[in-house]
TrEMBL record:
Superkingdom classification of source: Archaea
GO BP: potassium ion transport
Protein name, per record: RCK N-terminal domain-containing protein
Boundaries of every RCK N-terminal domain copy: 1-126
Database matches in Pfam families: TrkA_N
Transmembrane segments: none
InterPro entries to which the protein is assigned, alphabetical: NAD(P)-bd_dom_sf, RCK_N, Trk_Ktr_HKT_K-transport
Length: 230
């Protein structure tokens, strides 16, 4: 396969190495304004360096974009990434366009610009932190848009009394596709009826319904908490 990678953010080198591992025989073009940076990037993955203005068609064509299988927009500017994926998709019809969202608020912008897949490192990190600290409060762990699913995660401690109400509610929700319980100590999967205080309750739900489900669970917990105080 032929891969065109534009930009040199902190994540670019990791992504380049991932491309090489996934496609050992692939041709990787690394594109940057600076010839030195393009050379450094390409050297790490036995690629082909190209330098020039990133949105210039001549620069991209020197990187073989007309016959590219994938295009990666990895600059530190989401606006520039949006311009790049729009160019790669609408002008050159690259089959698979991938961009990075430096600000998670720009994920939708990048999809609308033509990105088939958006990498959002900040979303992944904040999602993990919320999941780790989600004691008695459900949090949404957003998965990539193309997967079409999200996780709702919580660790019931003081809210353990509300679990029956939660299970009763989600059992009626068609968009809930799976429910798991994992041990907080070693991550092992447990039977649902073995849920103990502090364990992780993980709910897999369709992305289109995850926000609504999260709000419903918060309301159940709120009512349970209010009732326990009386």
């Amino acid at each position: 396969m032929r891969h065109v990678v534009v930009g040199s953010t902190h994540f670019s080198m990791f992504i380049l190495k991932a491309i090489r591992e996934a496609d050992p025989q692939g041709i990787i073009y690394t594109v940057e304004r600076s010839p030195e940076v393009a050379e450094i990037m390409s050297r790490q993955v036995s690629g082909k360096p190209v330098h020039g203005l990133l949105t210039e068609q001549s620069t991209l064509e020197n990187a073989g974009i007309r016959i590219a299988d994938t295009f990666f927009a990895l600059t530190d500017s989401d606006a520039l990434n949006a311009n790049l994926v729009e160019l790669s998709k609408k002008v050159y019809s690259v089959p698979l366009t991938i961009s990075i969202a430096n600000n998670p608020k720009n994920v939708d912008l990048l999809y609308k610009s033509g990105s088939d897949y958006v990498l959002s490192p900040v979303d992944y990190v904040t999602g993990e932190v919320k999941a780790l600290l989600s004691i008695d409060k459900p949090s949404r762990f957003s998965l990539p848009q193309n997967i079409g699913m999200d996780f709702i995660v919580m660790r019931p401690v003081n809210s353990i009394e509300a679990i029956d109400s939660i299970f009763s509610f989600i059992s009626k929700e068609r968009d809930v596709k799976d429910v798991m319980v994992t041990s907080a100590t070693n991550g092992s999967i447990k039977k649902i009826e073995e849920l103990a205080k502090g364990d992780f309750l993980v709910i897999a739900v369709r992305k289109t319904s995850s926000k609504e489900l999260l709000e419903s669970l918060e309301e159940i917990l709120k009512k349970s908490s209010g009732g326990s105080k009386k």
